[in-house]
Amino acid sequence: MKKSFLRVLALLTLVLGLVACSNQGGATETPSEGDTGGDAASTSKSFFINPKSIGPAYWAAAEKGVKQAGEDLGVEVVFNAPSTTDSAQQINMIQDMLTRQVNGVGVAPNDPEAVAPVFSNALSQDVQVVTWDSDAPDTDRKYYIGAATDAELGEQFAEMIANQIGGSGKVAFMVASLSAQNQTAKVDAATAYLEANHPDVEVVTTVSSDDDQQKAYENAQNLISTYPDLKGLVGFAGAEAPAAAQAVEEAVNAGNIEQGKIKIAGFAVPSLVKEYLENGTIEEMVTWDPSKLGYTTVYTLNLLTDGEDVEDGMEIPNVGSIKVNGDIILTGTDVLTKDNVADFGF
Amino acid sequence: MNLVKEEVNTRLKRLPSIKINTISILVILLAGLLIFFSTQSPYFLTTLNITNVLVQVTTIGLIAIPMTYVIISGAMDLSVGSILGLSAVTLGFLYESGTNIWVSVVLALVVGALAGALNGLLIARYKMQAIVVTIGTLVMLRGLVYIITKGKPISGYPDSFYFLGQGKVLGIPFSVIVMMALFSIAYILIKKTRIGRYTYALGNNEEAVRYSGINVVKVRFLTFVMSGLFAGIAAIFYVSRYASAQASAGDGIELDVITAVLIGGTHIFGGRGSLVGTFLGVLIIGTLRNGLNLMGVSVLFQTVILGVLILVAVSRQNK
């Protein structure tokens, strides 16, 4: 027993040592007094910025914006989340940060309904609450910060493909889900936009990959062989465009279609389409910069805790002008080309 | 045959002396954590935060109760997270399709117990390996959960239902009271009843127990039904607290639960262990997570620290 007591003692030392290390390393904290030097006047404020999970490159890119804003504004920011997209753990973490008496929280909810109780809890403690990246519209959150509305994105996709194919011809839509609201809203907007502005563009079909890259690839192959006169593929989610590009490239290499006959547009994750942009299979895509979302989230919380408010068209440093529509803040999208694809950190 | 029974009983009576030491070590560890975190964060030792920690550990705590029994009896239940998920979405699905909320609650518990009974039947009756069977049900039941919900969370319950997971009695959260009460009942059961003694005996020497005339199948079956039922209870509080039943509810929770039980000194091959130890193990995990959150330590470091804890807990079991 004496032996095991020693072991536990050793463990205790190890645990506390680790904690001390990680604290010194400042894995997630940006203590304003050390880093910013000069403007340490308003150091009392702290914000908790909570992505869906820690790990994916998308969130790491967002963290850069969050930390930059923390430095620029002289506020302490804590950027943390569970290692998986676990709603319960995420809510526990928000609750812990409320205990720490942060002044504001920015949450990308894993389950938009489940965060409602913890949000009202936060408001009762005068903590400002906003959502970012993903909204929880049925809660007491003050603002939602996103890149663009689904309708705007759908219209941008439609304009982009119509433009690339010269305003007439057959296109197919590729979606991640036929039922998810964020997909159907984009498809409806794109369809309506084409009907109104480019009546000669015909949408032959809409296929779903169920968020599976392999299935998206098979879908693209099937579309290419089913519609010999197809001129465009529109990807509505991250997995679609790279799969479409792969299928088109293979069809070109096999001699089944001519280079450049099928254009690709829609939403893209920069790192996934980088090679296709560079070799010309894809000309341009719509994307957004998560670091801008992160920056705007901290900036908005800072305004709210100062008793101020955001305004439509206001300029945010490092982000640009934002659109405010009711309780929704939009930072805008970027057109992704081979020239700027390396600038995105995800 | 009675001789073997006697032997089993006398051997069990010698157990407490070993346990007291393990438990005092756990108390020291917990106290160490409390002292350390209170020096690191002024918010740590506040009533609000302590309440938070207790509420946060109810899910793990409730499931860890039968898990202690299961592991002491020399088995393992990896399917508890999926059973929690299944009970949670059963509750949501039934309520959404017009069933009374309290009827839905009872049926969700029944589903949990039935899932546990399926494990128990295969393991106790048909002598299949517990780890293999529960990996099977872990995968199968989670699949069922996704079929029921089609991947979307089910929310919107009546206010009276939210009392379970969010309400308080005399300032103490109701879910914490239930967890404490169930821990106490389980403690008395394992200490004072034959079922408790048989559970230890099963983990020590299943053959001897069988020859002594004890119904091995029944005892083992019961531990798995309990495991399923408690996962169901945890699911009810989970849905009530988060106001939502999502398909991923309870995903991976078996790891936290087993970690708590092992840290609490229960032997991975059974025969030894205690509910007091498990309770302390649950508190240690909860305190560690909460304290590190309050300090703003990245979740990536938290995972490493929890892993170290498991390794040390198991290193004490090499004999």
Q: Could you describe the 3D structure shown?
A:
The complex is a heterodimer of chains A (346) and B (319). Chain A contains 11 helices and 15 strands. Chain A is an alpha/beta fold. Chain A folds into 2 domains: 36-148 and 289-340, 3-Layer(aba) Sandwich (Rossmann fold); 150-287, Rossmann fold (3-Layer(aba) Sandwich). In chain A, strand 6 (169-175), helix 7 (181-197) and strand 7 form a beta-alpha-beta unit. Chain A is elongated, with a radius of gyration of 23 Å. Chain B has helices spanning 2-13, 16-40, 47-56, 58-72, 80-96, 101-125, 130-149, 159-166, 174-192, 194-204, 206-211, 216-242, 253-263, 275-295, 299-315; strands at residues 154-155, 168-169, 172-173, 244-245. Chain B is built from 15 helices and 4 strands. Chain B is 76% helix and 3% strand. Chain B has 319 residues and is mostly helical. Chains A and B meet through helix 1 and helix 4 of A and helix 2, helix 3, helix 12, helix 14 and helix 15 of B.
Return the CATH topology of chain B.
Answer: ABC transporter involved in vitamin B12 uptake, BtuC
Mean pLDDT of chain B: 88
Strand order across the largest sheet of chain B: 1-4
Shape assignment of chain B? globular
N-to-C series of helices and strands of chain B: HHHHHHHEHEEHHHHEHHH
Total number of helices of chain A: 11
The computed structural class of chain A is alpha/beta
CATH superfamily of the largest domain in chain A: Response regulator
Task: Give the strand tally of chain B.
Answer: 4
What is the CATH class designation of chain B? Answer: Mainly Alpha
Short description:
By secondary structure, chain A is α/β, with parallel strands linked by helices. In chain A, 44% of the residues lie in helices and 18% in strands.
Characteristics:
heterodimer, A: 346 residues, alpha/beta, Rossmann fold, 2 domains, seven-stranded mixed beta sheet, four-stranded parallel beta sheet, 18% strand, B: 319 residues, mainly alpha, ABC transporter involved in vitamin B12 uptake, BtuC, two-stranded antiparallel sheet, two-stranded antiparallel ribbon, 3% strand, globular, SBP_2_dom (chain A), signal (chain A)
